[in-house]
Amino acid sequence: QVQLVQSGGEVKKPGASVKVSCKASGYSLTTYAITWVRQAPGQGLEWMGWISAFTGNTEYAVELQDRLTLTADTSTNTAYMELRSLRSDDTAVYYCARDTTVTTGGGYDPWGQGTLVTVSS
Amino acid sequence: EIVMTQSPAILSVSPGERATLSCRASQSVSINLAWYRQKPGQAPRLLIYRASTRATGIPARFSGSGSGTEFTLTISSLQSEDFAVYYCQQYNKWPRYTFGQGTKLEI
Smallest Cα–Cα separation from A55: which of B73, B96, B95? Predict the structure, then answer.
């Protein structure tokens, strides 16, 4: 079945970088874009960015574009999210999700299980 | 940016009863509206897309309606697993598909 499996939780110090992976199975990463969404503790969902593995095109939230890089490796069917210069308010669960909005008019489906990134000195 | 506003923030309902959740967009999003359910400690799951189409595997007790700026999610007979947080999301203005702040459905 279609599934996204993310890498495990991370603890980082302020100023460090984190790279989270999102491995797709049951479909080819090139057929749908991947979106990244994060959720701070007890908060709502925040859109971070989007990548098309087919074209390599990316879009980023304005407030993150200086620190965020999304990539995709089609040979391993894996997408990556790298966030640099981490701050305490980057502490959140990070989700990848398959974006079906353009291809089939749907929403984000499915989602990865989430990766908790904790930023603390 | 399109702002999505959900109401109420918290809805208290008994099992077996009907729940109605609302979502308003700051400008028209046509029918490009999705609903998600997020259980504690889990990732969100797509329930409804195109405002009224149930996603694969979603039971018929979930229904969505609306267009333009006003949308509703109705759960006809609440089951225990439905007590969770629900988010609406517009996907009319690419690429930043904004979410509402969520409605917590509690017993």
Answer: B95
